[in-house]
Amino acid sequence: MEYSTRNESKRRFPLGWILLFISLALVILAGLSINKIRNGQPGFMTNLWEAETNPEPDAYLDGNAFFLPVPGYVKTVMLLGSDYQPTIGFRTDVMLLVAMNTKTSRFHLLSFPRDLWVSIPGVGPQRLNTAMPFGGTELLSDTLALNFGIRPDNFAMVDFDGFKHIIDVMGGIDVDVEKHMEDECWLNDTGWCVIEPGRQYMTAGDAFWYVRARKNTSDFDRNRRQHEVIKAMVSKALRPTELRNLGRVLQAVNETVETDLNIPDMFLYVVPFSKFIDGPDITTFQITPNEAIPGMTDGGASVLYPDINAIQAIIRQALWIE
Description:
39% helix, Aminopeptidase, alpha+beta
């Protein structure tokens, strides 16, 4: 039986145009939304169809001596890594603030140490990583507002199984390791792993160990390693040679990450990232023992006492606050 190739061409041709028009429309919408954000209007891409309303008073920012005026063109997402276990629940051992400057398409990363001893509204003095278990993202947002004068625009959380699954789907990552590191591990028969500076290929298991190792290193060093892995994941996902796998990666993210970001808002993050063929333009910031002083609570717990003014100086840099 003969088939007409002419008819097949007619069926395929319109689909290509439809996809092209959809892509152009998304780019135009992203551009319009960014322009609105640059003018100081709230929201992300959804601000194009959401009605503007007068914001309600913020109980933890209004009148707060620590309030920081984040520019309207800076958007923030708090990335959370959960150590969830069915029998004991979870704490957020990873708290990484991602800031995007919509004027320059630059990204900043700032980690908050999990053991920061802060005041949690309605709870009292506790480690920062307990705010989520006590009251979810709303309480964590209130805690950041009360103690540091900022409130993230959005949140995204993944547990460690989800983290490993995403890297598995990516086929591993190439991490630019800054410092020599060795620590207890479960990846070989010796029970001890060593990694040297330079670009190192890591499987999901390697990367999980690298960001979690704590027997022979500090929480401050863990934060630095988390930055390295996040940068490696983003860089590989948006590499031109990896675009054929981007759909599977996005599906893995969708299956494992809990977030209040919607698809159009996620797209607005990807547009600036895609400009950097050799990797996204990401700058990292660190809270060190100079700003978070190790100490003991009256109950004998090892914590980090925050120097609020010193930490806010770092936040100002990370969020482009003049």
